[in-house]
Design a protein that fits this description.
The protein has 797 residues and is an alpha/beta fold. 43% of the residues lie in helices and 18% in strands. The strands form 6 sheets. Strands 18-19-17-16-20-23-24 form a 7-stranded mixed sheet, with helices on both faces. The protein binds adenosine-5'-triphosphate. The site of adenosine-5'-triphosphate (ATP) has 19 residues, from helix 16, helix 21 and helix 23.
């Protein structure tokens, strides 16, 4: 195929690699010139219909920019006037960008195609070494990896497989059929500009998947393993004793493992003693299995096995950038951490703690940190733990004794320097059997953790090389002593726009890959994603959104399977089709109330906070003419004690304010309701919203439209600070509310909002209820104080 030397190029978040097809989503408005060009190009049968696809991460770079020449398979437009269109592009070959020829209307560049992937380069020694390493790593992978990674047919006949096919085809087979390519892998594969580099990539991948990689490589080097010298001297007699006795295959295996374990001398002595005790026991004795399991477990801990860490800023930046949208603060901190480690590899870094609402990517970014450092990743869920032994283990003599979670994670990782994620550190609590937080203190203390003693293992194990990262939803749930050891990074919820980008570029491609669905089967329009976010989810993160997208894919899967003849059909999911797939809209009620708030009296828009992030909480007030208890207030909407008190304070303040302004409100009964009656609500921050709703009702004037508010009130009308302001502002922003009233004390929270959002908002700081009323009442405070200043027509309740 002839590759042109000049090509129009586009930058895309997803990465196209040769031999693969990619569906690219582009905005029509921004890419209208490209669209016109493509239509002309497709009409012209002589033309080759090619464009260059360059990773967005390389935008602005001039040197060493590698892209892929893509053959346009089709241009998909949904409807006649659509905000977006899709390109189906097949990756043909890599290219090196030489120079930019023009920028407008299309970016055209001069390229040099790179197409040398059939043979290895370099001298013969180099080539043989690479081949031998590939074969050895594949053999290790087959022997030690978890089942299912490699096709069983290759497992059986891998020598034949290696002989039968040339190396470049084997590599291609790996890339297309075995490796689950992540975005950062795709970038690395794209930038591998020779067969040698691709082989190295596959070797590295196989090493990561080989559970006992370090174990086998130490065997292979010399075939000999030395014991610590102190033990050799001290253990001669032990050896004799052991050799005298005939060992069962089980014990023989443990003995070999002891010899090869490379454990420190004092530990070796302890274990040999236990092993000897085992030899003296009869296998029918009740203790026998306890000692057998114990010795077996301890011996197989990764005493001297560590993964070779990659400290490469460029690679780390790419992995973090390509696998997660946004999260700049965390990414910046990780890059600093790696830079410090490059300068001083011995330095122990801080323990990062990522705090944020559910589904904002805390766990997955921690995993990406593991990938960027090439360290094994293990997650320990601490949610619900209430026992000291969960962290520190039980003594082996207990019935059903087990090591603690930390040692279990290290044992599973089979390396002494994994990244361990302590997930949900705020959800542990103290139970009758001790405080797990106290045990964690020892784990995280750099002074103590080089000789951490798990009660089950009962000998010191050095966990100082482990990198701990923790996550939590609320800082308040973390015990103070633990909090002091952590470097806290806060993650905010996402805006609708950010969620859309995450859905388009991360969640949908990942889902289709996980479900092994062909990306060509399904097209989810931008408007559809927007509708799902607004009407079917109510969250700060993207977990619910991910579930809804998954539900759509499952729905299409049934269609594809039931109508196998339609397999090549592209299912387009439009906003209208959502009702069939996801059912009725779930979260639109609040939006309706928000929109109606400007037409009716007695409605104010408040902001509340829940563990899932900020929420819009409309508050309604209406008059009822009598109530059976002669009380002045009816309060509904599953409200708690603090909220109840806020309403009482609000009424009290309004009474004195009304009196001063000669309005008699003593003879009416007011009903205050907080919609979503099924959800419990509490807290003091609804104070100002309640006052505004009741004032609007009593003075019979609708509030100015689309103003959201939060703030606690005192009896004298002062506004007190509240919590969760950042999340609340984000919720207001996502609901298209751009004017937000907050307590002046909380203005510091506004600084940590992303700049583009801050600029788009009109945030009004207030100190007193009168300032609030001056903002929300048409005509301002003057209207309330002198109702004859009738600026707007009064409406009826
Ligand atoms: N910025 C982002 N870019 C790409 N994907 C994201 C981003 N944020 C979240 N996700 C995706 O959302 C899903 C949920 O993320 P994750 O499980 O890491 O959330 P979490 O913050 O750890 O939640 P929890 O507090 O409930 O444990 C994952 O599939 C993750 O990949």
């Amino acid at each position: 195929m002839n590759i042109p030397v000049e090509l129009p190029v586009v930058y895309t978040t997803q990465i196209l690699i040769p031999g693969f097809i990619l569906k690219i989503r582009l905005e029509t408005l921004k890419n209208s010139d490209l669209l016109n060009y493509l239509y002309q190009d497709l009409k012209n049968t002589e033309s080759t219909h090619m464009i260059g696809i360059i990773p967005l991460i390389d935008i602005g770079k001039v040197d060493n920019v590698i892209g892929t020449v893509g053959l346009i398979q089709s241009v998909i437009q949904i409807g006649s006037v659509s905000e977006e269109f899709f390109l189906l592009v097949q990756g043909i070959c890599r290219f090196l960008l030489n120079e930019t020829i023009s920028v407008e209307p299309l970016k055209i560049v001069k390229i040099t195609p790179i197409d040398n992937f059939k043979i290895l380069s370099g001298d013969e020694n180099e080539k043989t070494e690479l081949k031998v390493e590939f074969e050895k790593t594949l053999s290790n992978l087959i022997t030690y990896s978890e089942p299912g990674i490699i096709n069983p047919l290759i497992n059986k006949n891998f020598q034949k497989f290696l002989k039968q096919f040339p190396l470049h085809l084997i590599i291609e087979y790996f890339l297309k059929n075995i490796i689950q390519i992540t975005p950062s892998d795709a970038y690395e594969i794209l930038r591998a500009t020779s067969l040698n580099a691709l082989v190295k990539f596959v070797i590295n991948w196989m090493k990561q998947k080989t559970i006992k990689e370090n174990n086998s490589s130490t065997f292979d080097k010399t075939g000999l393993l030395s014991l610590p010298s102190a033990v050799i001297i001290g253990s001669n007699t032990d050896k004799k004793k052991i050799l005298k006795k005939h060992l069962s295959p089980e014990l023989e295996e443990i003995y070999t493992a002891i010899k090869n374990s490379n454990m420190p001398a004092p530990v070796y002595d302890v274990i040999i003693k236990d092993f000897n005790r085992l030899l003296k026991m009869n296998s029918f004795q009740s203790d026998y299995s306890v000692y057998l399991n114990y010795v077996n477990y301890v011996v197989n801990l990764p005493w001297n096995k560590s993964t070779k860490e990659t400290l490469d800023l460029e690679k780390a930046r790419n992995v973090l950038q390509l696998e997660h949208y946004g999260m700049d603060e965390v990414k910046k901190r990780i890059i600093q951490f790696i830079a410090v480690k490059i300068l001083n590899p011995e330095r122990r870094g801080p323990i990062l703690c990522l705090i944020g609402p559910p589904g904002v990517g805390k766990t997955t970014i921690a995993k990406a940190i593991g990938d960027s450092l090439n360290r094994t990743f293990k997650r320990i869920s601490l949610g619900g733990i209430n026992n000291f032994s969960d962290i520190k283990g039980h003594r082996k003599t207990y019935i059903g004794a087990m090591p603690g979670r930390i040692i279990q994670a290290i044992s599973q990782a089979q390396t002494n320097n994994p990244i361990i994620l302590l997930d949900e550190i705020d959800k542990m609590y103290k139970g009758p059997n001790g405080d797990p937080a106290a045990a964690l203190l020892e784990v995280l203390d750099p002074e103590q953790n080089n000789s951490f003693v798990d009660s089950y293992v009962n000998v010191p194990f050095d966990i100082s090389q482990v990198m701990f990262i923790s996550t939590a939803n609320h800082v308040a749930g973390i015990p103070q002593t633990l909090r002091d050891r952590l470097e806290i990074i806060y993650l905010e919820g996402y805006t609708v726009e950010e969620k859309m980008k995450i859905a388009e570029n991360y969640l949908i491609p990942k889902l289709l890959k996980d479900l092994k669905m062909n990306e060509l089967h399904i097209t989810i329009c931008k408007n559809t994603i927007n509708n799902i976010i607004r009407k079917y989810t109510c969250e700060a993160g993207v977990r619910e959104l991910q579930r809804k997208l998954e539900a759509i894919c499952h729905y299409i899967a049934v269609e594809i399977v039931e109508n196998s003849d339609k397999e090549s059909k592209n299912y387009v999911i439009t906003p209208e089709s959502l009702i069939n797939i996801l059912g009725n809209e779930i979260y639109n009620i609040n939006n309706v109330l928000v929109e109606k708030s400007s037409e009716r009296v007695g409605i104010a828009i408040g902001l509340s906070w829940s563990p899932t992030g900020g929420l819009i909480q409309v508050i309604e007030a209406s008059k009822i003419h009598f109530h059976k208890n002669n009380s002045q207030l009816v309060l509904t909407g599953l409200v708690g004690q603090t909220l109840r008190e806020s309403v009482a304070i609000a009424l009290n303040w309004i009474q004195s304010f009304a009196k001063k302004n000669e309005l008699d409100i003593n003879n009416c009964c007011i009903h205050v309701h907080l919609p979503y009656g099924g959800l419990k609500k509490d807290g003091p921050s609804a104070g100002i919203t309640i006052v505004c709703a009741i004032v609007s009702l009593l003075w019979e004037i609708p509030l100015k439209p689309m103003i959201a508010m939060t703030g606690e009130i005192s009896l004298k009308g002062d506004i007190l600070p509240v919590g969760g302001v950042k999340d609340k502002i984000l919720a207001a922003y996502n609901a298209n509310l751009r004017t937000i009233i907050i307590p002046e004390f909380n203005m510091k929270d506004v600084n940590s909002l992303p700049e583009n959002i801050r600029e788009d908002l009109n945030i009004i700081p207030v100190n007193h209820l009168k300032e609030v009323l001056d903002v929300v009442i048409p005509g301002g405070l003057a209207f309330l104080q002198n109702p004859t200043v009738n600026l707007v027509p009064r409406s009826k309740i």
